[in-house]
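Sharing a chain and its predicted structure for anyone who wants a worked example. Both blocks are below, sequence first, tokens second.
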Amino acid sequence: MIWDELGELTAKQKQLVTALEIAKLEEYLPYAGRYPGRHFEDQAAIARAFVTKMVYKKGFRIGVVVAH
């Protein structure tokens, strides 16, 4: 298990690992060869990043460029 490989995890890290294991995001992503767009590995990484942001309660930043 991941606990054995990484050693002692913080409570927040345990929460993230548990959320990712329960969600099984890869099962809900479309097959990469079927649709145009990002590769499956990229889709999975992006999905995991969104879960991480939710667990760590980080907001989504949208940059606004103002022309002078």
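Comments welcome. The mean pLDDT is 76.
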